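ok trying again, last paste got cut off:
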Amino acid sequence: MLADRNSISAAVEALKELGENNIHTDIDLGKISLPAIDGIAALNKAVALLDKAGIQVAEVALQQPTLDDVFLSLTGHATEDEVKKK
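nice, full thing came through this time. structure:
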């Protein structure tokens, strides 16, 4: 989660090299998520890229993907249940 959710666009730009097509954002929360194939190494690289771009991070975490996350990554869109929640 970013300290300033207005910096989402800049953060996505900074993280492009980690998988531009797999970056997902939640502007309301200032949250960015992307697959971390390399686990902690990918997390460290993401934090370093954001730091280099001068973007402050409020919270960072590794988490296992949910079934909805997997569905989104495979199909490119949310499940019907996720769409109905919004």
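cool. The two ends are 20 Å apart (CA to CA). The chain has four helices and two strands.
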